[in-house]
Amino acid sequence: MLGAGEVTLRRTGGGWREAEVSNQSTGYCPDPDSWPAVAAALDRAGVVRPEGFTHAPVFRRCERCRENNVVREGVFVCVFCDADLPAAWNLRPSPS
Asked: 30 near 65, Cβ under 8 Å?
């Protein structure tokens, strides 16, 4: 599994520590389930980390208009065309 997002680090007396970790990436739009990949990368880098994302938006691609959406307040409806969004993550890269 791959992960992407944003990490804000702060320096402490013992090295680096996360201040915030999110999956906010509008290019890859990873599902919150990508946390294990992010945690492994932070561990390899020696960064003290939380047990999960501090902010984890949910992304879905609309199957009608193909636009990427951020699901807000658990409402799985496309903000562009008002179609229902799928319950499962569906933003895999398109085959070339």
From this structure: no
Whole-angstrom Cα distance, residue 96 to residue 74? 32
62 and 90, same domain (yes or no): yes
User: Structurally, how many domains does the chain consist of?
Assistant: 2
Q: Is residue 1 part of a domain?
A: no
Encode 42-64 in three state secondary structure: HHHCCCECCCCCCECCEEEECCC
Nearest to 75 by CA among 58, 61, 91: 58
23-47 residue pLDDT tens: 999 888 999 999 999 999 999 999 9
pTM for the whole thing?
A: 0.82
